User: Fold these one by one.
Assistant:
Number 1:
Amino acid sequence: MPRAIVASDKFKGSLTSAEVAAAVGAGLRRVHPDTGVVSVPVADGGDGTLAAAVAAGFHLVPVTASGPTGEPVKTGFARRDDVAVVELADVSGLVRLPGGVPAPMTATSRGTGELIAAAIDAGCTRVILGIGGSASTDGGVGIVNALGGTDALDLRALRDRLAGIQVVVACDVDNPLTGATGAAAVYGPQKGANPQQVKELDAALTRWADLVARETGQDLRDAPGAGAAGGVGFAALALLGAELRPGIELVLELVGFHDQLQGADLVITGEGALDEQTLHGKAVAGVAAAAAGIPVVAVCGSNKLDPERLRSAGVVAAYALTDLEPDVRRCIAEPVPLLQRLGERIAADHLR
């Protein structure tokens, strides 16, 4: 009996990773009805991380926390035993901006800190924090405040709160906090900041880094990843004692991907679009690297990578919805039958 693992990221705005796996699996079985299909939803540490954890057996703990502009949002953390998974995007992310209106100068990461606090109060001692998709450039000040740190940087309450707590951050960028390649300069415009606001944000981050350095005796503003998520990476490193790890690597570990590989004939991964970003820390490249010699193919909405680039990442073939339906809007609106047809093609090409 052939055995296939479907470890896909979401198709953003269209399907969850679990729905991608269900559709592909249905197509595989049309060609080989006895195919064993194992769904292992994955994410790269940004939006979708919480859903991937829940699909892997974590329990969702609902929490109401502050959104990026202060309004309450219904969110939560995923828990298994004493491990909590917190997704910044689901509480402090761009997707939580009211009406989608950017707030580059006022958006805050406070809600993420509130989620971490809720997980600690519930008895969790290891917090996995995915920080992609941030709406703010606050240097993580909001998180620090929510955990007991004050604006004058009295850290006693924060240190008490984090005593015995391990924080691991899923982070896929190596930007410093400040400067030409820092959080404000590189990511501020994506969050709605104009050139003058970028300068103001960078100056504020510089003052924040100076304050933290004076209080802690170490200056981590130039540490790789400090500029991640509008400077949340900096606060995590400098004040939460966090370890930064590649997002997909951390998620694969959380969902038990490696445990599923034994006896697999094929690994199918995927995401909405395959492009140059795919090769730098995204789910498809991470799954292919972790597949331990098992053939890997990818499904996607659209593919901008040639076969040689894909093979260099460990992907032997890619199957795109746009191969079947050139109308992108229809691919987004009606992806399931198209994915099922791609599943049939994959079964015919790669399963015997």
Number 2:
Amino acid sequence: MLFSTLLLVSLVGGVCASCRDFGIPASTFTVEVRAFQVQNSTLVDLAHTLVKPVLPGRENGSFPVYAFLLDHRDSKNRTRRIMFDLGFRKDPSNFAPALVPYFTSGAVHFEPSGRDVTDLLHAGGISLDIIDTVIWSHAHFDHIGDMSKFPNTTRLVLGSETDTSTYPTSPNATLQESDFAGREVVKIDFATANLTFSGLKAIDFFGDGSFYLLDTPGHLAGHLSALARVTPTSFVSLGADTFHFAGQMRPRPALQNNFSCPGHLLEYAKEHISTDYFWSPESRDGAFDVHSRSQPLLGVSDTPDAFIADPVTALVSVEKLAAFDSDPDIFVLASHDISLRAALPYFPASLNDWKAKQLKTKTVWSFLDNTNPGFVFSPINGTH
């Protein structure tokens, strides 16, 4: 018994150095994280609204749409289930009228699978009645789903700066009365936060160190992300729309120090990343060098029609989240990272063993692989 107690103290007290560096308190409480790929979507001729530069032939932006189911078990062995984001609703004609033209014009296209996340939950044997809480990372249409399908007992949690005006009271609103009707709505106010990780204000959602909501502003007013503890010393960072392409986060020196880029990808990058658009100190015309690149390949869009509300603030949030991305104990997963689409284990599989299965090691550089849809660093015509 004494040995077991000492072992537990050792595990908690000796939590990974990176966690101490970030100021994340030690805890043995965890959440189980499971991912759904709800839809695949394409922004037609609109990639520039999210990212820069957009190379010739890359004008369409294709993205998966992820949602996450989290199971939390407290000290009394009681389980609470929450959803982090919901994806699209399957009937876009029933969005608020201000959003419908995106779909009728063909600007936003998603595969007509005839399903939404509630269908996926039902198919997986998860009743909506046991979903305690839905958390919106933000109020864009590809995250809010159709809240009217959830019972009134399901709380809705969102950032305090979220614009909660609704149609028809506000004719141009993108949310509807049915999103809120009859349910408890909780606004997370990060001004009350007493924790900060990597410069990000954090709120301990369950009060036991298993799941934190993080203030990651810039993409849209009220945008938040999350940090889920999946073992006592490892985490999944649910980055939401802090970034959209892996190339907005990578490469960086700290990442390269902890995760070596495979040689075959270095060689491919050398030959195929366009030096007309990307450069590094050791690059030469027609031969790009990854190792000497100290900044991410891609930036955050700042065009007048961008889906980014505050590009300067959004870029700061990316920089702060990058410290997580470089850490061996944190797997950063954005809501639309297409470089991971084929590699993620989806529901009913769990993401909790990502480190044991070396998922990050196997995927963190996959966006440089020409067979990966996350590779967007050469013109489609292949010129340099």
Number 3:
Amino acid sequence: MHRFYVPDIDATDRSITLDGQVARQLKTVLRIDEGEHVRLFDGSGAEWEVEVEHVAKSEIETTLISAVESVPEPSVAVTMLLGLARPERIELAIQKCTELGTVRFIPVTSERVQGGNTGTPSPKRLERWQRIAIEAAEQSGRAIVPAVEQPVAIMDAVNSLLADQPVLCMWEELANDSKPLSTTLKSIGTNNAAIAALIGPPGGFSEQEAMAIREAGAKLVTLGSRVLRSETAAIAVMSAILYESGDLGG
């Protein structure tokens, strides 16, 4: 059954009007007919099944049939801090990590931001990234839509998160300063309600940045001797956290 993100659904009103992009997709792409059923979710975790009552020129009238049980979220709420890179790399990381269960994305600026100051995303680019997260949630069955936040400086992001959760910084230098991801996840345990993972930009973090991140209280983590692209690292880290917490297929 097709699923669509519709914010601000009033479940007390059994009549729900769909307009804008959702109505256009239902009418022109899916060619929805009266009597067909679709599912709607508002991004907060709630989901409903509705029946199409009337297809108008720019709106679609639906009737709420029932609330439905949504796909369970991972037991660990993962925030992904993404070092700025080429847009297509960030987009792939957001898409795939949303499918896996990431709850929040924070783009971060650092010394090796790809493109320098021009690498900072515009408001239009951030809107696109949020749309990618919405579409990934629709496709994967999630009833939660992760937020894609405004870019912040790397240390500001790390310091703001450390008060509430462990921060794991992926650092490719194979030295005593970095511990394997599996070892780190076992050391912090799986009872944490939240974990933040920091993925560097292409070229990684400088040694000075990595030491500052560690001194702030974050854990430096290595993913092994193979060199991974930033988007691959994000997907690998998210998958490993799910596996360690028992959320990857039980």
